[in-house]
Amino acid sequence: MKRTLMLVVVLALAILSAGIARAADVVIYAALDKKTIDEIADAFKQATGLTAEVALQIEQAGTIASRVRTEASNARADIFIGGNSSIHDDLGKENFLAKYVSPEIAKAGIDKKFLDPSGYWSGWYLGALALLVNEKRFQAELAPKGLKLPASWDDLLNPAYKGEVIAANPATTGGAVIFVATQIFRLGSVDKGFQYIADLHKNVSQYTPGANGSIPLVAQGQAIAGIAWGHDLIRQKNAENLPVAVVFPKDDGYEIGGVSIIKGAPHLAAAQKFVDFILTPKPMEINAKNGLRYPTRGGVKMPEGVPAFENIQFVNYDQAAVGKNLDAWKKRWSDITGK
Q1: d(CA 93, CA 78)
Q2: Which residues have C-beta within 8 Å of that of residue 200, sequence separation ≥ 6?
Q3: Which residues have C-beta within 8 Å of that of residue 283, sequence separation ≥ 6?
Q4: SS3 category, 139
């Protein structure tokens, strides 16, 4: 009996020890597609020898933020990666994140506008807005009038586009908020920005609830031009052979994809090494290859057909101003459009 009991104890300890040995060095909550985060986790192990467990993978960053808040008294994960930086920003201000400024930031020369001044999150990729144009309708209807493909936001104001532009609703999608804010920042004032919105409204046929709602509609020829996220647009164009031209206009708007360390992280040192790694070229190349998202550092090779990061001219985007004025700007947009 004693021998049997001893054997059970030994086996139990062996199983426990094996479990401990297999425990990950860092635990991740990821608002990225599965392929991308799995490849990043593998690359992290190859680069550092540390293992990463993707404990939660869901592309809705708000869901991850809710979980971080729920688990605040006993954090179960170390890293929150992916999703708009505004979501990380809110968590930081609410004291759910740990501050960390990676030394890789200075090495990579990452622009401070892609970083949290308080040090709660680091921006490692960008999603850039783009114009899409139905090539067949443009060549048949607008090119004979002497028009060239639109190269700027202002080109959409041409009366030739009356009833031929599809945009999105800032009440229902963050992409449209970024579009509105981009006009304010590039034109230098709130009034000028909303004058642009009023002028564009004359040419808009409909506002979609999602940021990419224009893609199928323009591709089908229901309108000549639209606005969408560039990485999603290029991915769909390539996958479905869509008959649309893709243009990244001057003074482009963008979202910043964030990475942050959760307050109370069980593996803080490993979490810091993971953030260091994310800011190196390899994970940014993986993200660019799979998601067609732009890295925040230069020198990262982009897939064929995607313009180099250095060749896109971004607007000086003020995230703090957007957060402060969001409700007022949404109301003013609604007053102009009646939506």
Answers
A1: 18
A2: 156, 157, 165, 167
A3: 40, 43, 44, 124, 277
A4: helix
Give the C-alpha separation, 173 to 176, whole Å.
6
Tens of pLDDT, residues 169-191: 988 777 888 999 999 999 999 99
| Secondary structure element (H or E) that encloses residue 239, with its range | helix 230-240
Name the E strands within the chain: 26-31, 52-57, 79-84, 97-98, 121-134, 165-168, 204-208, 225-229, 244-247, 254-262, 294-295
Mean pLDDT of 145-154: 96
| Closest of 218, 156, 213, 219 to residue 182, by C-alpha | 156
pLDDT tens profile 256-297: 999 999 999 999 999 999 999 999 999 999 999 888 888 999
Helix axes of 174-187 and 319-337: crossing angle, nearest 10 degrees? 100
Strand 294-295 and strand 121-134: the pairing is: antiparallel
Q: Let me know: does 130 contact 232? Beta carbons within 8 Å.
A: no
Rounded CA separation 303/165 (Å): 28
User: Structural domains in the chain?
Assistant: 24-125+256-309 (3.40.190.10), 128-253+319-337 (3.40.190.10)
Instruction: Taking residues 68-94, report their average pLDDT.
Output: 92
